[in-house]
Amino acid sequence: MTADEAVEAALGALDLETKARLLAGQDMWTLPAVPAIGLASLVMSDGPVGVRGVRWSADDPSVTLPSPTALAACWDPGLARRAGRLLAQEARRKGVHVLLAPTVNLHRSPLGGRHFEAYSEDPYLTGEIGAGYVRGVQDGGVAATVKHFVANDAETDRFTVDNTVPPRALRELYLAPFEAIVERARPWAVMAAYNQVNGVTMTEHRHLQNEVLREEWGFDGVVVSDWFAARSTAGALLGGLDVAMPGPHTVYGEALAAAVRAGDVDEERVDRAVRRVLRLAARVGALDGAAPAVPKPPEPLDGEALAREIAHRSFVLVRNTGDVLPLDPARTPRIALVGAAARAARVLGGGSAQVFPARTVSPLDGLTAALPEGTTLTYAPGADLSDEPEPAGPGFTLRAVCRDASGTVLADTPLPSGQIQWVGTDLPAGVTHEALHSVEVTGTFTPRESGDHGFGTRGLGPLTLTVAGRVLYDGVQEAGAEGDPFEAFAGAPAERGTAHLTAGRPVEVSLRHTVGHDRSAPLPAVVLSLLHRPPRRDPDALIAEAAEAARAADTAIVVVATTERVESEGFDRSDLRLPGRQDDLVRAVAAANPRTVVVVNAGAPVEMPWRDDVAAVLLTWFPGQEGGAALADVLLGAEEPGGRLPTTWPAALADAPVTAVTPVDGELRYDEGPFIGYRAWDRAGGPAPAYPFGHGLGYTTWEYESLAVTPTTARVRVRNTGTRPGREVVQLYVAPRADLVDRPARWLVGFGGAQAAPGASAEVEIRLAPRLFDLWDEDAGTWTTVPGPYEIRAGRSLADIRLAVTLELD
Ligand code: BGC
User: Fold this and answer.
1) Whole-angstrom Cα distance, residue 81 to residue 138?
2) Predicted confidence (pLDDT) at residue 710 exceeds the cutoff of 60
3) Which GO MF terms are attached to this record (predicted)?
4) Last residue of a domain, one of 484, 499, 533
């Protein structure tokens, strides 16, 4: 029996109720099993940097790769494919069939809160990296879910915003990566976004989901809603949405069966959606009698090694004066390492992208392990990144005690941190939502420093916080009036009081919460955190201490970073500044030591007003669990920083041509049309960015020797003219005739990696897809070729073009 026959046989055996049930989540992450037809429960889980699984907890860890901006900065679809394979391996280990990734929305505004989770401002680069990633995940027999379809490029009011996108921009920019991935990598799932596009909410967008995605592009997979995005029964089904997540309360299931019985929806339409779900099940091996798409998973990969490789390949060296990097510890043996993030690195972005690494290597750990004997490494925190308490972590030993209404203990389970997120059926053994009355996060805290420690809570409802026998809070936390529903779900962090503690002396801590029984909630959940903030230190004294350490060293390395409150999900940024006093810190360290290297630990652009006053700047994104090891590799020259910017890096927010993320009267207008990112910078002709699209120095130098172009391929020969082996990312841009239509001045049409030893040359062959020269004709509603000549330019970045030839196209 072929897979198609197995799917038809299974479909034929289902009654209406079961079919309708199969299109609705049964809980937060799964679809129901139907044993009668040999269908297992399909399990979904977030990526994109790991596989969290069905539990939102640090005791269910996942390999944690660098974040998507980092993966894009590698400019290597083959590496993205290996990342995908590793994630499929993690998914299989955790019994996950469907990975909710990659995110291929675009960097339209640098303020986008989930910038770190998308690849680029350029649709071609996004599509290439996304296609590699999807291929890799599906090589492992796990479904990839390309999200969020479409134009979910910012977070503000994301559930309701109407993004007004002109047709050319929609086709040439926002749909383009989805189209390329559907064509090149055949994804098994796509996620419909929360937002509206041109007046229609995406889960009901018949034109984009049925006519464009399915009919025009031939997508044959499942369209799943973003979480809680499905709003109507008939509207969603007829609009092309197959699966409504999560459950158990959805617009499908019972409601869908009733709509069919009432004649609002044709059962045949239900069958089409069910057929697609069964096809997905067949592909991932969850339908008996259908051979899975991948009968035998590929050879296992080493997750730690791959996380480290992607990290060093992604780091972008944007400035390196006097060749301060790589460091030579024999000549400059005293190193001062500065920055709170050097000790507690931010390895991944927040929100649904959160996974829990089994370990993380901080810059301090990485350098300590890698520095040869005879070097000295001093550390100074320099500045606090945030004044807010964070979930209790190092120094705490905690348990969760679950009790019923009579006070009987139902479960007493160790907690890896102060954070509890039990959603749906994810509860400790022996506990049900019905029986659970209270949860207590309790244990001890042994402080590293003496002083006034802050303690706080996150969560809604009745909370009692006790530290060292003293009640710091006893009250009821109400939900905020507005904001993203997810924020409302978890509550905002609140500091409740301080306790004066002595280093090394343990104290008892307890956060007690009486759970709510809100029957109207879409699914039952227990979400609360015990928060902690170390004693505050005088900010000027911290900076002075760091500057002193820098002065006493041969080289100073400052790690600056953003925080969870800057880059996460459910909100956008309001500025691009580094939080806290970090800019002052860099200036003070640079003034104390001319050999100052700044390492930027951020998933998206930040302003770096001091960038011309320091010796080197290395962008390391959110580098994943092995980030500190990879950083040591790069700083000490064991590896080259291989990254190139996937997005223009503005000097100041005010210079960026497209920034708006806040809807006006519910509408966010994409009035700039097809001009975002470097396309917009070129057109605006204003101040140059800090660093252009494609920029990245590496540790060697390259000469571009020849460029030969046909309408379908380009060949570029480059020579490594430096003293170290290296990898060059050869970039191809096209510049059209300026006079015909209003088009960007130039755009990326191809790229390829060249590896060469010192003195050696290498040739890169780059395929040129015809579509890349076309324009979307808004009147005709089709792609159209604009006659040439076109100039094809090869170079190291948008601003460093080395060779150009003219291509006639007719
Ligand atoms: C996010 C999705 C994610 C889903 C499930 C949503 O809030 O937008 O990207 O896959 O939650 O966690």
Assistant:
1) 9
2) yes
3) hydrolase activity, hydrolyzing O-glycosyl compounds
4) 533
For residue 104, what pLDDT is reported?
98
Asked if residue 570 belongs to a domain, the reply is: yes
User: In this structure, what CATH number is given to the domain that contains residue 472?
Assistant: 2.60.120.260
Q: How far apart, in whole angstroms, are the C-alpha atoms of residue 700 and residue 721?
A: 7
Which residues sit with their C-beta closer than 6 Å to ligand 1? 46, 100, 147, 226-227, 352
What atom of ligand 1 comes closest to residue 103's alpha carbon? 9
Q: Is 76 a catalytic residue?
A: no
Calculate how far, in angstroms, residue 462's C-alpha sits from the geometric centre of ligand 1.
Answer: 28
The two tokens of residue 535 are 């004693």
Pocket test for ligand 1, best of 87, 352, 486 (most atoms within 8 A of CB): 352
CA of 353 to the centre of ligand 1 (A): 8
Clarify whether residues 41 and 154 are in a common domain: yes
Q: What percent of the chain has pLDDT above 90? A: 91
- For residue 158, give the nearest of 668, 674, 567, 605 by alpha carbon: 668
For residues 10 and 146, membership in a common domain is answered with yes
The Å distance, Cα 351 to ligand 1 centre, comes to 8
**Would you state the pLDDT for residue 11?**
98
* Mean pLDDT, all residues of the chain: 95
Closest Cα to atom 8, ligand 1: which residue? 226
669 falls within a domain = no
Residue 489 has pLDDT above 90, yes or no: no
Instruction: Provide the CB-side half-sphere exposure for 650 (13 A, CA).
Output: 26
In a domain, 67, yes or no: yes
Nearest atom in ligand 1 to 100's CA: 10
Residue having the nearest C-alpha atom to atom 7 of ligand 1: 227
Asked if residue 290 belongs to a domain, the reply is: no
- The catalytic residue among 153, 226, 242, 384 is 226
pTM above 0.85, yes or no: yes
pLDDT over threshold 70, residue 106: yes
Q: Is residue 750 exposed (0-12), middle (13-18) or buried (19+ Cβ within 10 Å)?
A: buried
* pLDDT of amino acid 488: 61
> Do 346 and 203 share a structural domain?
no
Rounded distance between C-alpha atoms, residue 205 and residue 210, angstroms: 8
- The 10s digit of each residue's pLDDT in 400-432 is 999 999 999 999 999 989 999 898 888 999 999
Q: Which residues, 6 or more positions from 757, have their beta carbon under 8 angstroms from its beta carbon? A: 720, 725
Q: For 73-188, where are the E strands, in sequence order?
A: 98-100, 143-149, 162-164
Query: What CATH number does residue 783 fall under?
Result: 2.60.40.10
Q: What is the domain-level CATH number for residue 583?
A: 3.40.50.1700
Residues 529 and 542 in one domain: no
The domain spanning residue 205 has which CATH number? 3.20.20.300
The tokens describing 57, both together, are: 């907890």
Written as one letter, the residue type at 469 is G
Give the least confident one: 173-187, 227-241, 460-474, 480-494.
480-494
How many domains does the chain contain in total?
4
Closest residue to atom 3 of ligand 1, CA basis: 352
Using CA positions, which residue lies closest to atom 11 of ligand 1? 227
Q: Which of 533, 568, 600 is the last residue of a domain?
A: 533
Instruction: Specify whether 378 is located in the same domain as 408.
Output: no
**Does residue 237 sit in helix, strand or coil?**
helix
Residue ranges making up the domain that contains 417:
393-533
Cα 360 to ligand 1 centre (Å): 24
pLDDT at res. 516: 80
Gap from CA of 229 to ligand 1 centroid (Å):
10
End-to-end Cα separation, the chain, in angstroms: 48
Label residue 456 by pLDDT band (50, 70, 90). very high
Q: Are strands 189-192 and 143-149 parallel, antiparallel or unpaired?
A: parallel
Are 188 and 146 found together in one domain? yes
The Cα angle at residue 293 between residues 19 and 64, in degrees rounded to 5: 95
Same domain, 522 and 545: no
pLDDT higher than threshold 60 for residue 482: no
pLDDT in tens, 794-809: 999 999 999 999 998 7
Smallest CA separation from ligand 1 atom 12, residue: 352
